[in-house]
Structures are given as structure tokens and as C-alpha cells.
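Recap for those who missed Tuesday's class. We walked through two folding examples back to back. For each one, the amino acid string is listed first and its predicted C-alpha cells come directly after. Nothing is annotated here on purpose, so try labeling regions yourself before you check the end of the notes.
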Amino acid sequence: MSLALKRAFAAPAPEDGHRVLVDRLWPRGVAKADARIDDWPKEVAPGDALRKAFHAGELGWGEFRRRYLAELKAHRETLRPLAERAARERVTLVFAAKDEQHNNAVVLAQYLAMLEPRLRAESP
């Protein structure tokens, strides 16, 4: 699986491959024409309540991660094409968060990595 993570404020590069914005909201100050986003599956971003609670500091990283993974499980079929694409080519998950270690893109990448072996086992 070839997954990368990149902040939305960093310039797109050819090695990014297929660029997927993984936030529910478009990043402030980033022009759509400059972002070179190939896909924006808003439904797999954290729900509004979860996102707001985490950003307000009401949830720690562990609890946010646990709750977001539970949300992602409900979107397994929606995420299947993304996991399959990452198995074939480079996919860059683009996010706006300042904290590059504790954000939804990190959790989504972990989930896709867990999903990928299961997809391989299911394929004929």
C-alpha cells in the first residue's frame, strides 16, 4: 500500500499521485485551483460533533482515534475503492490540521492499512 500524508498548505507535487482531501471542510486560504485535489469524500471525514469536540480539546487523541475508527467502520464500502487505489498507486491524504501526528488523516491511513489485507483476501 502506497499512502502518504500531506498538509493542504504544502504545494502539490507529481510524486503525490492521487490527492484526496480527507477533511469535511475546505481548508481556509487554499485556492481550489492550486490544491490539485483529485477526490474529496466528505462522508469519510470525522462527523461534525467528533471534529468539534477534538478541536475544542474535549477529547484526547486516544478517544478521538477510537471514535473516528468506529465511524470509519460504517464507511468500509465507501473506502474500498480508495484502499484498492492505494494498493495499485500512490495516494496522498491531504489534511489541514497543524498537528501532523494527531489528525484524522493519520487515523484514516491506519484504517486503510488495516483494510488492505482484508481486501486482498477477499479478491478472487
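Example two. Treat it independently of the first, because the proteins are unrelated.
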Amino acid sequence: MILWILIAAMTAAAALSILVPLAHTRAEEPAEDVQTADEAVYRQQLEEVERDLDRGLIDPAAAEAARTEIARRLLAAHERGQNGRKSAESKSSLRTAQVIAVAVLPMFALGLYLFLGAPGMPDQPLSARMTAPAEDQSVDVLVARVEKHLAENPEDGQGWVVVAPVYMQLGKPEQAAQAYANAIRLLGRRDDWEANLGEALTVANDGIVNVAAREAFERAIALEPEAIKPRFFLALALGQEGKTEAAIAAWQDLLEGADPREAWVASAVSSLERLGGTVPEMGDGLRGPDQEQMAAASQMMPEDRQQMIEGMVAGLDARLKSDGGSADEWAQLMRAQVVLGNEDAAREAFELAQAAFEGDEEALASINDAAREFGIIKSN
């Protein structure tokens, strides 16, 4: 019953949205005889100006100004009269529009609802949608549920922990930073929460590491000296502050012995090279170019460097397709193709690796993990 009342109210509102402007238009139209009288008055005033000029009661300049103003009013009155006559001529079309609004619009709305809608479905107020099973909800509704809960229970630290990374994924770094700050205040300090707080503050500040972000990263390192994320952002901050030598040292310390397959390594190497630093020895095996190649690459133009990298990736691709290789090498190829933007080639490498290690559950698990990490397949 409530549904049909709402439909009736919406139909009435739609009809009124058409009828009211039409009614106002007709009510505001002045009568044609009024416009004719106005025109007559202005013509008479023009004649009086001419008589006054002939008798020397006004000078020519004043007469010209008076004629101009009276002529403007006369033209305006004439235009209003023309509009009034046009409106009278369209009286029948206005009545037709009113009939359509009153009779046809409700019938059209009802038919459209019966065709596209679901009349038998019970009402689903916001409260009901927010209490439905989580797997049936959109991200926005789930966030709204958590926000509602936190508004009622602001001291629930775990709730802030849950919603903070979601805010980051939704592109809301300010809210993410506040959520991490609340979690730390309520549950105590953790190196990953402090690092994530600093990252959110940096993203919210258009990539500039400000004082608050720096302090968060420093607290994270105090809790975990080997943590990668805070050391990465602090090295970035040094470069932003123009402390080139300190930034080079920070990047070299971060890259020393690092696994070159890590997602952050390429960005760190690029930042170090821009500052003129030398890339240190990284982990064995899958680094790709050796130190001499890296040094040569740092002296190249960007186009030449890109060409060299693509050549190395193509060589690895050809070797693995011809001779095969380890699961780690296939993972390296997948990552390299993703970095280069070759999504189809990355997926092809993933499929070939799966075929090569069919029956080897451990290798397949490693390959699948790498594919999920690089975004080639979706996480479960």
C-alpha cells in the first residue's frame, strides 16, 4: 500500500512540475489592450517632445535624449504585445500539454514501473540494506555500515583498523589517516600502522612528506628498524628537502641486499639514479642487469634505457619459452611484463608457467601468488 501511495505522490509531483510553470506563464501574460495603450502613451510622449522642441521649451540635446528613452520604452511595449499575441495563439497547445501532463504522464509512469520495476518486492529501507549479509553489499554500503558503527562506538579501535585501508583504496587518504590515528590512540603503536599513517598523510599532501608524516615514519622505524615502507618514504623526504647526499645514502642502504623482485625496488633504483647515486649489490639470482649494465643504463637517455630493459625482458622471455626455467624466473618475467605495461604478455607468461609446472603444487602455488601480487589474476 505504501508503495502505491509513493507512486501516486511522485506522479502528482511530476504533473505539477509541468502544470505550475504553465499556469504561471498564462497568469503573467498581460492583456493585449494594455500593451496597445502603453504604445499609444509612448507615441503621444514622442509627439509632445517634438512640440516642445519646436516651441523652444527644450534644447536639441535634451530632445534627442528624451526621444531615445521614449523609443526604447515603446519598442519594449511593442515586444511585450507581440509575445502576448503569440501566447494567445498557442493557447490550444498549452491545453494539450496540460492534458498530457494530467492523463498521459501518470499512465506512462505506471507502465514503465510495471515493466522495469518489481511491484511484488517488499520495501528495502536503508536500515534493512545495511543489516543484510556483507557478501551481498557494495563497498559503499559496507563502509557506511562501519561508519555508522563507529559513530555509535567511537572507541572501537579494531573498527578503525578495518576501515582505514578501505579509505585508502577508495582514494580518501584524509579519512584513512584519521582512522589510523584513532586506531593507534586506542590500541597502541604498531610499526605498520604508523607507516600506513605516514603514507596516508603523504598521499593527502600530494606526495610531499610533511612533518606529521615524517614523525609517523620515524616512530615506525623506532618500533621496527628494518621496516621497508618508512625507510622508503624517509629517503624520499630527504630528496624532497634537497639533502642529496643523505638521500643517496638512505636509498643505497635500503637497496643493499634487497630482493629485486620487490615492487618498490624499481622506484627506489630510479630515485637513486636521478640523484646520481650508484646502485648497490642486491640479492642474488634474479636481479636482471648486473652492476656494469646498471651503471651503463644510468648514463643512457631515457629512451635508450627503456630499449635496453625491453631487450633484456625479451631475452628472458625467449629463453624461458625455449629452455624453461624455475618458478622464480617465470615470476620475474611476469613482473617485468607488468612493469612494462605488457598485460597480455604477462598473462601469457603466467599461462605458460602453469603449463610448465603442471602437477608441481609447490611451484604452482608460488606462480599463482606472484600472479595475484602483480594483478594478473584476482585475489580470492
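Answers for example two:
The two ends are 43 Å apart (CA to CA).
The chain is about 75% helix and 0% strand.
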